[in-house]
């Protein structure tokens, strides 16, 4: 990690620091938002991207076995589309029907 910091991240932050110091003078609203964008928002977006990628990798596990509970997946009346069993945003890999997962 220290090699990544020394080679890539530190020069990037030094460049940003120099460019912000060159502006100098009284800080205006636009300068404050420019600094916030580069120093806060960009790393926050990068961390969110890393989190989403890691969550995607963890989410590809085997699904849990189907247990038929009486209080779940009740169908008092059929859905008005398709065969009436599947909801509008049905995902056959994640959503179970009343009798179990689709094969």
From TrEMBL:
Domain of life: Eukaryota
Membrane topology of the entry: Single-pass membrane protein
GO cellular component, one term: mitochondrial inner membrane
Pfam families membership: COX6A
Any GO BP annotation: mitochondrial electron transport, cytochrome c to oxygen
Pathway as given in its UniProt record: Energy metabolism; oxidative phosphorylation
Gene Ontology terms, MF aspect: enzyme regulator activity
Keywords: Membrane, Mitochondrion, Mitochondrion inner membrane, Transit peptide, Transmembrane, Transmembrane helix
Protein location: Mitochondrion inner membrane
Name under which the protein is recorded: GH22053
Source organism per UniProt: Drosophila grimshawi (Hawaiian fruit fly)
